[in-house]
Amino acid sequence: MSPTRTRETVLRVPAVAAVLLVPLLLCLPSASAQVIAARPVDKWVDATGRAAGADDKARDEAIAQALRTAVEEACGVFLTSQSKSEDYKAVYDKVIANAVGYVKEHKVVKVSIADGVTTAKVRARVSTQKFEEDWASTAHTIHQENNPRVIVVVAESVHQTVSGPSYKEEENGILQGKIEEFFLSKGITIMDRGTAANVSKRDVLLAAIKDDMTEVASLGARFNADVVVTGRATAKYGKQLDVSGQTLYQYTATLNVRVIQTDSARVLASKTFGPVTTTTLQRGGGEDKALAKIGDECAAQLLSAVVEAWRKRANVSRTVAVSVSGMDFETWKTFKTEASALRGVQALRLREITESVANIDVEYRYTNETLAERLSEIKGVKLAIVEITANRVKLKVQKP
After folding, report:
1. Is residue 302 a contact partner of residue 11, using CB atoms and an 8 Å limit?
2. What digits encode the pLDDT tens for the residues 304-326?
3. Model confidence over 25-63: pLDDT tens digits?
4. In what helix (H) or strand (E) does residue 129 lie, and over which residues does it extend?
5. Are 250 and 242 a contacting pair, CB within 8 Å?
6. Residues 300, 188: contact at Cβ < 8 Å?
7. Which residue among 213, 224, 274, 381 is buried most deeply as judged by most CB within 10 Å?
């Protein structure tokens, strides 16, 4: 295997970058930081919610939807005033996710079932003041933190077959330089490279080459990054061309990139750039020209993918990564039957069972802590809670 050259850069993307590429994160409007005292601090609202199904789970979903609708209606005037702000969508997704937190009290007026759909009508008292305060706080945080926070790790492999050695290795790759140059032109601040140097380059390289997303994500978490962009670029000699009595040498370059969420190691985006070709009159040295060309062509799309990946991460996700050790396939079948019936569980997806460890994605309506408690209480499989984080729950099967 040819040696590779690798560089890593820690980036923090300011709001201005998002303005230029994806209209997601913009400066905080002054109006969103103000709470208008003339508005009532509480407001009673009647609202309706619906959910597919006729069981208790559908009832819970319908009520939850009704409460969310109540918050939106009670705070409608405020939301309308904010809707033209450029950071509206990013803030809305975060604040409205806690809709139930703004309901100080509520009463379920009526629940009905018709044609397989459950309808719930509620009367709720909504704290409009708390909603507006949280809105201002969230908007400020988005602006202050200049999300997304990114680590870029690109491994470059150069194969020379026209002249010279079969490969070459450099400390600073031309493709990485092109990406940095473009990012800087969009106002992106490159953090102190001394910080990146504290992480083993060998570990970074091996993780990228082996497609070890867990290790890559772990690396990103050390920098408190939201996403990691990891890529592998290859440049090589293509063929010889004879044009009008001149001999030209053609080189090609390709780049494969993944954008990874650091808290779950989930791949948010996967892109391939190239192959791009370049020609030169000289024998050898065309690999760097090919890498420079693909860097020019992909930099804007790459930054756009980074920002979009963070947007997906920032938006509220109800998917919880559940890891269960000591589980075989027969145990999984029992677990699936009982866990699917738990209230609040919308879907279970088995990703893999490897060496008696099952990795499962669970779409759940409530908190991770509640999910862990409910799973530990199922009767068919006795489970013990090992770890609970913001995005993961680890359990183990206890033998009778």
Report:
1. no
2. 777 666 555 554 446 788 999 99
3. 333 344 433 433 445 678 899 999 998 888 888 898 899
4. helix 128-145
5. no
6. no
7. 381
